[in-house]
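Re: the 658-residue chain
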Amino acid sequence: MLLTSLIPAGLLVADHFNPPDLHRAEQAALLVQARDHTLLDGHTSRDGFWRLPVESQDVDPTYITLLMMTEDHRFESHPGVDPQALARAIWQLALRGHIVSGGSTLAMQTSRLLTPHRHTWGGKLRDILRALQLEWRFGRRGVLNLYLTLAPEGTNVEGIRAASLLYFGHEPSHLTPTEAAFLVALPRRPAALRPDRHPDALLNAARHTLQRATSLRPVAWPTPDIRSVPHDAPELTGHFLSAGRNSVVVTTLDARLQRNVRQALASQPAPLRGTFAALIVDHERQIVAWVGGAEHKAPGNAIDAVLAPRSPGSTLKPFVYGMAFETGWMTPHTRVRDSRLAIGGYAPKDFDHTFRGETTVSEALQLSLNVPAIQALERVGPSRFMNRLSTCGVRLRLPKKPDGTQSAPSLAIVLGGAGISLHDLTMLYAALDHDGRVAPLHREPTGLKSAPPAPETVLLSSRANADIRTILRGTAPPSGVASWESVAFKTGTSYGNRDGWAMASTPQATVGVWAGRPDGTASPELTGRDTAGPVLAALLSLLSSPPHAPAPPASAQPHRAVAILSLALRTLQQRQAPQIIFPRNHSEIESRSSQGTMLPIGLEGSGGHPPYHWYINGIPLDVPPGAQPSWTPDAPGFAHITLADAQNAHATIDVRIR
């Protein structure tokens, strides 16, 4: 009695202090698939194998039956070790002097797969003991699952799920008898039967396995298609790996479109030592193409340009104007003046350093004029604009001050003075074709079609959104494109030509393109329209059907004609008092040449009612008609400058001349 009670206790203690090493079985590879389960990319497990976990209920019964008939007839009856098979193996070894059959059960083979070792008598004994332990711990189904995960299937492929996906292009839940015979035969001699090196030997072994184990006769014996894992989605694969994902991940990407987009970007002339990134989102807000440029050989390309925050240039202007429409400050027909303007010391210029004079808000947005956009944001409020985007799930990244603290929101946001990712910018532009509503973008299927839709947040009112979409559809397309009647198009170029953007919202899809150098340095010839615009046009041509113009939503009635607008909305109210744009108040100006003479200082004013009159320390400055006002100081020191307009309104500043 004492002995019979001590034996189980001893086995429990031994099992506790010497558990099976499941380290190899727990290390899985990653395979990234498109929405139709086409293989796009992947990465081996940490130990360098294409290994995927699988359970027996997910494997075709034909394979399971063939495996048992070939490897372990009495799998369902023995405790992990088959005494009859061992006795037969020992008897054959004694009679013939060499091993005829090994006598190893699936549990014993699994033990050796968990901790590989040489075929010795000591190793065989350890396999026996470990097989008993595995059966006791995990049961027959658990042992079978471990074997199906670890079975060597040639090269660095392990497990029948990885083998089925890489060799046959489908899951092992549906295997033909021929395919099942391949997967059963390969583990017996994985090096000698490698399908990429010894296909004829594998065919013969599979044929022999099937004929010996069953009466099934295959009609044909095709050689397995050895599929090398493509690298068509390296950025998403990297993100999944960083998140600790493994096994098979099905994405929303369209396999054909993803590959075509990568090829299209690679064929475009990129900026000097730069690259392109692109994101395409379908009408269901599913990401169908994601190319972040990380596979290109360019400085700083360790990052994914789809997610990296960059200066958006002018691409946020449509949403600033849309919010201004909502508040009633302006309409698409409101006339604004594009001229020199200083607001709180900030005096922006247009991209080409010229001003258009009086124009409409629609034309100002289509031409991407800076001063009218600044006036729109001033009325909306930078903080309010940022808070609205934040509510929609988009966080603008403000620059940091020299002391490391974050800057306060300013009017420079509308000209690219804050960072945003291509992902978030595309999410905003997708709202233009969803009645002004923003929702998260999906990179993995959301589940059943009957599942509730993703929560939406209102970015713009229905009417404001319709106005912005109509304006952007009137923007001139890139060079070489005849017309884009149903494409809401906008470009942007960041300060210093570091980032070029092209964004398009259509009824079919939303497309975003970024161009630049990943390390953030300038590319002098880079612009959104000339660099990113043609790339966006090429990507739109890849979509399966041409975009079409849908009927506008019933709730989105257009604004009234300008003739019946109230006087307050016909022309944006200008600042009444004149401003001194240059020099800035309390600034210090270097005016002495290398020879010691004083150099002229240009003067610039804005606002009020021209013509202007300038005064230096109370003395009128003589400015010839039509000439640019300038003043040559007599000597270094302080000066008091006054600007007066035709109605005697004035502005004054104090400067120091050095």
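DSSP finds 19 helices and 23 strands in the chain.
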